[in-house]
Amino acid sequence: MSSETRLHYPSRNAMAFILAGGRGSRLKELTDRRAKPAVYFGGKSRIIDFALSNALNSGIRRIGVATQYKAHSLIRHLQRGWSFLRAERNEGLDILPASQRVEEGQWYMGTADAVTQNLDIIEGYDPEYILILAGDHIYKQDYQVMLEEHIDSGADVTVGCVAVPLSEASAFGVMQVDESGRISDFIEKPADPPPMPGDPDHALASMGIYVFKTAFLTEILKADAANPDSSHDFGKDIIPALVARGNALAHEFSKSCVFRPGSSVAYWRDVGTIDAFWQANIDLTNFEPELDLYDRSWPIWTYAEITPPAKFIHDEEDRRGSATSSLIAGGCIISGSQVDQSLLFSNVRSHSYSRLSRVVALPEVEIGRRADLRNVVIDRAVRIPPGLVVGHDPELDAKRFRRSEGGVCLITQPMIDALED
């Protein structure tokens, strides 16, 4: 590859390494059977599809995905939905489960260790640059812009950062930066977070996105692996050490965000709690949601399950199949049921006289006659019994289901089975 091509199209000589091994325990029972990156989102996708799609749309065709916790659902999704990358075109998607590749008994000990254990695979692709990505956030970003800024700056590492309200910044790793964007300090979940330069109401929070020259990262990771006092984690060890060296750059997400047409809101969500997951899905039912899933210039690629069109049947008083301000995926049958401001994934069945308001129903849910559900998340393949009422009596809901601080009920099949015991 010529030096001119490398300069103008750095993504052609870059690899994305996605860290997708986390459980996401704050999502409670939603991650009992799947890792957080494999959790469903938006009617068709999984959470990890956003990082993967951003890489693909940015021109990056060499991708590694490190998995660990309950990875079967995630691996199956990657095999079904992302097998179109072709080795003969110098493309590839490597699924990298924790497999004791370094020594017996040693799984991935931290985010940095997950990369260290796969350095030989990375070196086989010989990328000049590498992006380390979190696989559990919802956003659209052109990584090419971030790569170019990294190259132009000559920084050791460029850290993707998003502006968050100062009142919420204590939940994140926060960057203190100077006017040029150089990071002077990295503080993990500070009680008194430092504000952004020129914006006293916001702080710069780490997105878990890092850009390195591959040769430099390899050197740093090998030194970290030899350090018995390290926890082998990017956020706890690698990034603070590089910040201390004085050559770490903060890249503001607003510079490379793929905005909804006509909007200036840089959309990024950590859907790591039941409330945040429910809200981000329900937000998609808005008239003009900030996350545009219909933008064909920056599509979210995923496994395209073959399903028939959604179907609405019955047209009688109190038994009319209808949906307002809702997203209804293929294979759904709304049979004499009223659906409002809800998101139904594929193959959901909602039977006569039932009412759904602000419901997020994962694939293959069946809702019995005369059920009345409000402000709920329903896990995959749950069978809601006829006449069940949820979302009207907080005390009763909390005894039967997982009720969040925000008043959202998570319903799983074991919870339903317990009602009959």
From TrEMBL:
SUPFAM superfamilies: Nucleotide-diphospho-sugar transferases, Trimeric LpxA-like enzymes. Residues 308-411 form the Glucose-1-phosphate adenylyltransferase/Bifunctional protein GlmU-like C-terminal hexapeptide domain. GO terms for biological process: glycogen biosynthetic process. It comes from the Bacteria. Coiled coil: none annotated. CDD domains: ADP_Glucose_PP, LbH_G1P_AT_C. Pathway: Glycan biosynthesis; glycogen biosynthesis. It catalyses: alpha-D-glucose 1-phosphate + ATP + H(+) = ADP-alpha-D-glucose + diphosphate. Its EC number is 2.7.7.27. Pfam families: Hexapep_GlmU, NTP_transferase. Keywords: ATP-binding, Carbohydrate metabolism, Glycogen biosynthesis, Glycogen metabolism, Nucleotide-binding, Nucleotidyltransferase, Transferase. InterPro entries: ADP-Glc_PPase, ADP_Glu_pyroP_CS, GlgC_bac, GlmU/GlgC-like_hexapep, NTP_transferase_dom, Nucleotide-diphossugar_trans, Trimer_LpxA-like_sf. Residues 16-285 form the Nucleotidyl transferase domain. GO terms for molecular function: ATP binding; glucose-1-phosphate adenylyltransferase activity. The record marks Q68, W107 as: Could play a key role in the communication between the regulatory and the substrate sites. It is an enzyme of class 2 (transferase). The keyword Transcription does not apply. Belongs to the bacterial/plant glucose-1-phosphate adenylyltransferase family. NCBIfam families: glgC (TIGR02091), PRK00725.1 (NF001947), PRK00844.1 (NF002023). Involved in the biosynthesis of ADP-glucose, a building block required for the elongation reactions to produce glycogen. Catalyzes the reaction between ATP and alpha-D-glucose 1-phosphate (G1P) to produce pyrophosphate and ADP-Glc. HAMAP family: GlgC. This is Glucose-1-phosphate adenylyltransferase. It comes from Pseudooceanicola lipolyticus. The gene is glgC.
